[in-house]
Amino acid sequence: MSLGRYLPHVGLRTVKTGAAVALALLFATLRGSPAPIFAAIGAIVAMNRTLGDAFQSCVTQFFGIIAGAGFGLLFVTLFGNFRYIGIGLGIIGLILVCIQFRLHFAVPLACIVFVSICLSPPDEAFIYSVNRLLDTSIGLVTALAINVAIKPYNNRAQISKLLTHLLQTIPHYIGERVLHGHYPDLSPLHAQLDRISEELEIFEKQNWPRHSDHDQQTVYLRGCEQLAQTMVHELGALCAMDERGRLSRANAERLGVLGLRVPETMPGDAHTEADVVGNYHLANLLDAYLYLSDFNLME
């Protein structure tokens, strides 16, 4: 019996996080840091799924510490005797300053650093601020470097896989509605569309460092997503009809290309509004299906 099935999966991001923390602690210790824990915290925070998210976390941490440390040193210097009430008023002022300079994302960390400095002995406030900034920077830079050097996250293949799976399931839904007159549950298709959209948002954040064809790939994949949405939308329109209508001969031939067996007695000329509307939606669905089929999704 294989032990592999009982062992938990260890992802690359997990490994990179462990390596980043270990190296950050080593570097902080080598420089003689009195509190290397901040280097570890910086490394953990900066290890995000995409490089874009990692860079944004680094910016948030850096500006949060700068704002909190600067405001804290100013407060300790000018209002050191007004400890608790003064800290509360200082927090209000710090938040207003961050908002004024559009640093909304850095407010929580800035406030934490500010309070930490205010509660430290006045003669140690400056040294504490410098050490906090240096140690956190060590963690941020270490994690960012490892994220860049060791196989940066790329979900291009995952998006292609999701689109391909959606494409492969569409003929079954068409057969259920058009050939058998059933009303299939479309919620799995909508869930797949949501997943594709989420993965595309992640892919768009993978533009740092920017590859030369990233924008083209993004436009290409968004186009594929629109075709997928069109298929599900047109299928939904067919399912919303009380009558499925009579299948046209042209659409019947196209269904044969999809591998669907159409009874010879089913196709015919359009006589009712349901015939015209049903074939219109089916033709749009098949157009989107064929366009998406022509794309090399796994390229």
Tally of DSSP β-strands: 0
Average pLDDT score:
86
How far from one another are the termini? 38 Å
Strand content: under 5%
The portion of residues assigned to helices is: over 70%
Rg (C-alpha, Å): 29 Å
Shape: elongated
Structural category = mainly alpha
Number of helices: 11
Oligomeric status: single chain
Main β sheet profile: none
Low-confidence runs (pLDDT<50, min 5 residues)? none
N-to-C order of helices and strands: HHHHHHHHHHH
Write the layout of secondary structure elements.
Elements: H1 12-30, H2 37-46, H3 51-79, H4 84-100, H5 107-119, H6 125-149, H7 156-179, H8 187-204, H9 214-239, H10 249-257, H11 273-294
Helix pairs in contact: 1-2, 1-6, 2-6, 3-4, 3-5, 3-6, 4-5, 7-8, 7-9, 7-11, 8-9, 9-11
Overview of the structural elements:
Helix content is 71%, strand content 0%. Helix 2 packs parallel to helix 6 and helix 4 packs antiparallel against helix 5. With 299 residues, it is mainly alpha-helical. The chain has helices at 12-30, 37-46, 51-79, 84-100, 107-119, 125-149, 156-179, 187-204, 214-239, 249-257, 273-294. The chain has 11 helices and no strands. The two termini are 38 Å apart. The radius of gyration is 29 Å and the shape is elongated.
